[in-house]
Model the fold of this input.
Amino acid sequence: MENCIFCRVAAGSAPARVLFADDDVVAFHDIAPRAPVHVLVIPRRHITSLAHAEAGDAAVLGSLLAAAAEAARRAGIVDSGYRVVANTGADAGQAVPHLHLHVLGGRPMGWPPG
Ligand code: AMP
Ligand code: ZN
Done:
């Protein structure tokens, strides 16, 4: 997926401020943060969205969620609280077609989201 920006981030061929990474996932700071802390967590392997995940992806989905919690710990927002979001498809406004979790925190947030 050489035209996928997040595949390129995962491969190290596009720049990113990486918070941490392992064999399965990469966590990096969003280029246009919507909160004082705004980290994206992606699987290294291309999955277009949560709607495209299959039964065999269960382990990497678990790794993504665990990485979101680790990102929040490293960013120091566990005590204040944070939100984890997976925009999926058109109505959710998904702009990048490579599955990613947003980890947002550092300010109070409204509910429901717009
Ligand atoms: P979504 O609307 O859920 O698809 O969110 C995509 C997010 O990716 C947005 O918050 C963008 O600011 C962010 N983004 C797009 N390109 C990059 C990039 N090269 N590095 C970091 N964040 C990016
Ligand atoms: Zn990709």
Remarks:
- The mean pLDDT is 97.
- The chain has one domain: 5-98.
